Amino acid sequence: MQRLDQLDEKLAALLATETEVDSEQLQQLLQQREVLLQELMAHPERLDKLQWQAAVERTSLLLEKIRQHRDRSAGQLKRLQHGQRSMQIYNKFR
Predict the structure, then answer these.
(1) Residue 93 banded pLDDT, cuts 50, 70, 90
(2) Do the beta carbons of residue 17 and residue 68 sit within 8 Å?
(3) What's the pLDDT tens digit per position in 22-75?
(4) So where are the chain's domains?
(5) What is d(CA 21, CA 37) in angstroms, rounded to the nearest whole number?
(6) Distance between CA atoms of residues 94 and 51, nearest Å
(7) pLDDT band for position 1 (cuts 50, 70, 90)
(8) Got the DSSP string for 23-66?
(9) In sequence order, which residues have a C-beta less than 8 Å from that of residue 4 and are 6 or more positions away?
(10) Collapsing DSSP states into helix, strand and coil, what is residue 79?
């Protein structure tokens, strides 16, 4: 469980920024987390209920932060594409 806590701290720190997230690093951390969760679920008798509940809550928080970054990135992409289309139209009439 301690490894999961440490991994979640890394993920939270990565997602705490308002700037663009390193998607490769995020993907690696999420893959590590998935493997670790599978290892933990393979031996449920070793899990402390309170620690497991805290991990479930952290999962929800991490998912929400990932959604926020995804939505922010999608908005930026939309504005960029709109700007590019505007420039194309402008250049047609130059």
Answers:
(1) confident
(2) no
(3) 889 999 999 999 999 999 889 888 888 898 899 999 999 999 999 998 898 888
(4) 2-92
(5) 23
(6) 64
(7) confident
(8) HHHHHHHHHHHHHHHHHHHT-GGG--HHHHHHHHHHHHHHHHHH
(9) 33, 36, 37, 40, 55
(10) helix
